[in-house]
Amino acid sequence: MQQYLESNLFFNQKHPEVESWLKQVQGKNDRERAVSMYYLVRDGISYDPFTLLEGAITLSSDFCLNRGIGYCISKAALQITLSRALGIPARLGLADVKNHLSSPKLDELLQNDIFTMHAYVEQYLGGKWIKSTSAFNKILCDRANIQPLEFDGIHDSIFHKYTPNGNKHMEYLNDHGNFAHMPQSFIQQNVVLHYPHLTLSFNDCISEEK
Questions:
Q1: CATH of domain 2-202
Q2: Are 90 and 73 in contact (CB under 8 A)?
């Protein structure tokens, strides 16, 4: 389990803002603390998929802490960082999804109806790995008229297939599994495969963001 507790450039427990976030985490046990940090990340960091365009620096938890915004990978990295700092093993999950409620602006950018490298988090709680997805903050969900994801630390929390009124929402197409470390090259390969028109690099050094 040690690899799921490590601090590094992407899951940076040494960032000066980490301590202030940890002070906001509440709970008497790991499950309660995991739930608390989930909501802190979900609603404390605004979701912005267009930050994807900034490349490698967005893969680090530092990006969210420095900017207050991020997309699914950035927010997952922050959730993992906080979890590991509290001694709760955590790892990254990646999947390809189709968001049936994606904005025309995002569709125009990606030129593809698949959002590759969608990130979720797995935490080791109660003797098993539990999934959670802190990407979409509540304000965003309210504006889009979709149900924000809740998390109880017991059951997996992944995006709903349908909205409350029955429209299609999120379709999981391919789960790439979990990762103890940020798989930069794998992310780069999939971004190039799905969005060849975008010249993005996820293999660059991210030290300048620290």
A1: 3.10.620
A2: no
